[in-house]
Amino acid sequence: xxxxxFMRVEDVARELDVSKSYAYKIVQKLxxxxxxxxxxxxxxxxxxxxFLLIISIVDTGTGWLLRHD
Length: 69
Hints:
This protein has a two-stranded antiparallel ribbon with strand order 1-2. A two-stranded antiparallel sheet has the order 3-4. It contains 4 helices and 4 strands. It is globular and about 40 Å long. By secondary structure, it is of the alpha+beta class. The chain has helices at residues 2-5, 9-16, 20-36, 48-54; strands spanning 6-8, 45-47, 55-59, 64-68. α2 (9-16) packs across α3. The longest helix is centred in the middle third of the chain and has 17 residues, at 20-36. The chain is 52% helix and 23% strand.
């Protein structure tokens, strides 16, 4: 059940095509936001629903733009 609801750092890195170290920074940032909202977080994983809600990837025509609301 946990694997369906959470993304590991490796999953985030693959989804965004970034290094694992950069993906870990993203996971940390998103988990910090969730923790501030009162949610329990798991180090090295991020809630998949929150990740998909917050991160949007836009094709600019000349490359991909990562936008964080």
